[in-house]
Amino acid sequence: MLIALIIIVLLVVFVISLYNTLVQLRLKVKNAWSQIDVQLQRRFDLIPNLLETVKGYMKHEEDVLTKVTELRTSWAKASTVSEKSELNNELSGALKTIMAVSENYPDLKANQNFSELQEELQNTENKIAFSRQFYNDTVTRYNTKLEVFPSNIIASMFHFEASEFFKVDSEEAKKNVKISFDK
After folding, report:
1. 0.90 exceeded by the pTM?
2. CA–CA separation, 34 and 23 (whole Å)
3. Burial of residue 139 (number of CB atoms within 10 Å: 0-12, 13-18, 19+)
4. Count helices and strands in the chain by DSSP H and E runs
5. d(Cα 159, Cα 146) in Å, to the nearest integer?
6. How far apart are CA 135 and CA 30, in angstroms?
7. DSSP 3-state assignment of 180?
8. pLDDT tens digits, one per residue of 86-121
9. What is the mean pLDDT of the chain?
10. In the predicted model, is pLDDT for residue 2 greater than 80?
11. Exposure on the CB side of residue 171, measured as CA atoms within 13 A
12. CA 65, CA 115: separation in Å to the nearest integer?
């Protein structure tokens, strides 16, 4: 009888331990996503200043400016990883166009405000890349724990669900944003 009681207690402790591990990993995934979200929001917050600086030089690129403004509005409404990932991809394409156009305007490239915004944007892009890597690593650890035995039994009992990876869907979005610091 005592041995059965000890086995039951050990089994309960084991289940509690696995459950707590899964909860901790799920919270780490949420934290990692919030770090990406912060950096992507920072990027969207930099955009109006960049657009104001570039606007006078890009009269013929009005559709790009409109697209970025629409993306910024959509960003506020997006709530899932996949929605924000898609908006990130679209914004990357628009930023590439802005930076490519800036190459054609030496006065714009020499503009101190534009140079500072380029540098801030490049720093933000680096932070986004790091945060995305960290998030995907965290999701991998969590999703692995959901699928390996015996934690998969506890995960299914308590309805833990796999998390989405932050991914780049288009080939265009996979290319680096070209930012030049030449003056």
Report:
1. no
2. 17
3. buried
4. 7, 0
5. 10
6. 9
7. coil
8. 888 888 877 777 777 677 776 766 677 777 888 888
9. 82
10. yes
11. 0
12. 19
